[in-house]
Structures are given as C-alpha cells and as structure tokens.
Amino acid sequence: MSHAGLWQQLVDRWERGAVPRISANGQWIEGAALAERVERGAGWLVDRGVGPGDRVVLQLPRSPLFLEIFLAALSIGAVPVPVNARASAHELAFISADCSPVLTVLPAQVVVLDTLLATAIAPRVRSPSEDDPACILYTSGTTGRPKGAVLRHRNLVAGIRALHDAWGWSAADVLVHALPLDHVHGLFVAQLGALWAGATTLFLPRFDPDAVWDAMESGGTIFMGVPTFYHRLLASGRTPDTRSARLFTSGSAPLPASVLMAFERRFGHRILERYGMTEVGITLSNPLRGERRPGSIGLPLPGVGARITGPEGATLPDGAVGELRIRGDTVFAGYFGRPEATAAALRDGEMCTGDLGFRDRDGYFVLCGRASEVILVGGLNVYPQEIETVILQDPAVLEAAAVGIPHPDLGEVPAAAVVPRAGATPPTEAALQALVREQLSAFKVPRRIRLVEALPRNAMGKVVRNEVRRLLAPIQVRPARSDEAPAIADRNVSMARETEGLALDPITALRGASAVFERDVGAHYWIAEAEGRVAGQLMITVEWSDWRNAPVWWIQSVYVEPDQRGAGVFRALYDEVLRRAEQSGAAGVRLYVDRSNLAAIRIYSKLGMDGDHYQVFELFPPR
After folding, report:
1. What is the pLDDT of residues 103-130, one digit of tens each?
2. CB–CB of 558/536 below 8 Å?
3. Which of 285, 379, 391, 471 gives a 20 to 30 Å CA spacing to 330?
4. Sorting pLDDT into bands at 50, 70 and 90, what band is 610?
C-alpha cells in the first residue's frame, strides 16, 4: 500500500489506466491535461511563496479551476482551506484570522489563473506523505464558533477507498455533479471519488432539475445530492429515462422517508442514504446491494468502527439511544489551533459526533436527532450563534435565539426569536434581516423573526431551543385527507421498520390506510404540519365502552418525522385529539403504554413521543 499523499496516489492510478475525464462548459479535460494543469498550478503557488504546511484559502467559484488549484496545493504539501464562494467578507476575515494563510485565492483571479494553468511551467516539488495535513474545512460542530477541522492525506484516501469499494465505482461510471466543491460531500465524496475511479464527470454549473435529467438521460450513472435536490427533482414534472443510472445517493441532511418512497415509485430507483461529517468523512452507508432501509444511515463501511455510547462512553445495547462514536483511518487529526476542542471531540481515538441514535438488531444505525443545534439549509450548515451575534449588534435588541424551522424544499431555514430592550423602539423584522444580510451569506438570513417578551429557559437558565422553535413554527393539526393515504402508508412502513424491525408490505399498508377513508371502520388519522410540511401523524380508533356508557378514543399509533422529533409534534397531536374527543362526547382517550414497560416506552420515544405523555387513560368529567 502506498504511503504517498493523495495527489501522487491519484497520478499512480491514472498511469495504470484509470484515466478520468471532466466535462464543463462544453469543454473536456482529460486525465493527462488535468495533471498538467495541476502541476502548473503547483508552480504558480510555489512562485508565490507557498510551501509544505502553508495554508491557502480558496474562495473560487464552483468550477474545475477550483479543483485544479485544490489539487495543486495538495501536490506540494500545502494545506488548502476551501471557503464557500458566497461567504461574506466578514466570514472570510474570520477564517483568515484563524488559520493565517500564506495566500488567499479570490474570484477576481479566475481569468488570470485559467490562462496561467494553460501556459505556465511547473517546477519539481516535494510530494507529501499520507500523514501530512491535506486540508482544513471549517465547521462549528456543536458550538457556534467555526473551527478548522484538519484532515490528513491518510483520512482522505481512506474515505475514498472505502466508498470506491462500497459503492462499486468504476471507470465506466459517469458522475452528474451539481454539488458545491467547498465541503466534504461535493469535493471528497463525489469529485475525488470519480477521479480515483477514473470515471467521467459531467460538471453542471449549478443545480437545475432539467439539466440533471438531461445529463442522466445522456448516460449518467451516478447522481449525488442533498434532500433539497430530490424535493426539486420530484417537483420538476419530468419522468426521464434513467436506465443508465445505477446509483442515487443523499446526504448532508436527513432525507424524509416519504421523499425516498416517492422517488422510488416514480423513477424506479431507491436513493441510498449514508452518514458522514466533516471530521470523519463518510463512515456509514446503506448497502449498494441489499436492503436500503428508509430512515436508516446504514451500516459501518469497511475499516470503520461505529458504536452507540452512554454518557460515560460505555457501549449501549441495540435499541438504546445514545451518542454515535466513530473510529478508523478517516477520523481527522483535530481542530486547527484548538487543543481543548480537539480533546473534547476525540476520546481514545474515537470521534464523539454529538449525534444521537441507536443500532437495531440487524446492525443498521438510525439517527434520532442532533445534539448539535446546527441548522441545515439545503445541506449547508448554518450556526445559530453566527446569526445571534449579528442580531445582538442592534442596540434595541436584548436577547436573541436562532433555530431552524421546517421548510418543504430546503429542509430547514433559519428563524429567530428576539427580545427587545426595554425602553427602546422595537426593531422591525425587515431591519434585522437587512443587518444579517450585510454580514452573512443570504442562506443564513432568518426567514422569520418574531419579537417575544422573554426567551423560554429551563431551570438552569439555558435557552430551550425546542420551545423557541415552537414559537417560530406553530404546529397545525388537522384530520387526514383520503388523497394522503399513500403518504400515511409510507410512514406506517417506516414506523414498523424503525420500531420493530418489521418489513411491512407497502401494498398491505396502503390497503389498510385506504380502508380508513373508504369504509366506516371507526378509525381516523390526524396530521400535524409545520411550515406547510407534514411533521407527524396519529391514528385513533373509536370503540364503545359499556362500563362508561360512551365511546372511548384509543390512540393506536404515532409517528413523528425524524427531523421533527423533540419539537412538540406529539404534544400538538395529543392535545388536538383530546380536544376533539371531548367535543364529540367521548368518555376519554386511551393510550395503553404501561409505565413499567420500558421497551414500549423506548419505542414511543423513538417515534417522537414526549416523555410526560405516557397516559394510560385520560378521563373527561361527566357532562
């Protein structure tokens, strides 16, 4: 096994015949031409005083040029620091102050660089080893202040190798590439995966549903996206010929089971879900061949150790919810200049991810929520503290709390609750949004800002963000409609799989859900919505009670979408059912969950039920 850096290992593979091709803006870049441009880029960097270990900030538009300069920096042992092309001057200044780059490459240099890479002569330079730092990617993890995650060449190579084998990459593959290049998903998982395999990349200038479908119909075999992409592909109205496609993957944010099932029904492909984070790359994945379980992040990749731990780090039994920890060659070196943060994240060689989940009896992992409060906007991280810091610059603001609220397309969007300072003229929503827009990227601007008298806090004085989220995104409960039977059935399938590991037949589930609407079977479904998107469902049956001489409503099942758990969805469903039952003249509402039955309580907890709602019987006063 080679101990050289990533660039040298790529070149070695290409010399053995796995030669990649990239199509962008109507032009093709073959493997040899790409290698020459990378070597010339290395010479350009050396001429500007860049050497091994030096940081190079890259804020370039999404294009092959970004990739070439990134690889050029890798080839000479420098450490590229990718920055989103839409990052504000304020954000760029923070990163620059934190990592002290020798060079910053900005969008204004694109034309000059493109010309230089076609003509410059490259000097010979020392190739780094696999143990040298390869790049720094900024992420906040579980705190609001961004930290630079240092990834070694070994980490990148291990991640690329594991996915190459797990996903069956080959030189015959054609990647349809619409992801950004400044984070793990688009750069390492997609683009470097294609280069390692010697595959072809069809590089799209931006995500556009029609452009994606055109590329897939022209021979695309692999498409990687975030949930927002799949929402928009479903909404495009097209049903293209995807016979050449072999793999659709989703990551960077949870993919709703309803989207996965709808995509499969319409296009004939089941999206492959996987798990990763900046600090460890992609470490778990549903199998290429075998069962891909909706709502599950799959199984550990070869060479990866994954376990669910309790507060003290002990491994928990299957089914128990705890923190996901990762071990293996993909685990990063630490946070740049942050020894305390590194020590908190890395314990005994394991990455403490801050994500909560459980492992089922078949070894599949399921996430229940994020310990981190990071807001995921179309797969892009937004850190609440960044938004709060800017809002607090307004002298009329006393306190602020930013959270993510559900969005039907982007998954989440930022929102904020603001407490005005006493005696000051309260700020307007538009003024605060403009303030944030001046300093942060557009996707970080809160879509909704609500003025409140006080922020909800717990007994320790800490802001309760779930309550803030409820303030900003009130949950609406309504009776289900007959046209929603397929979606209800999808959630029932997910519920059976998640709670009991049962492979409920989708057709049987659909027949059962449809029967509730087609025949008078004494059953009803209730739907909870947040920001125009279904957040959960509850089923009740109505039965006559002789000893009460009145009907009784029984709660038969509850399901809350994974990204909505802990946001009060079950409480809203429960309260609405109580209200409706009492209005109907029922004697009460019954939910038969014995408080001593820990297994049953654990199942309901997974589904999003609040811990204080295990009522055995809710009796209404006699009328």
Report:
1. 999 877 877 777 777 776 766 566 899 9
2. yes
3. 379
4. very low
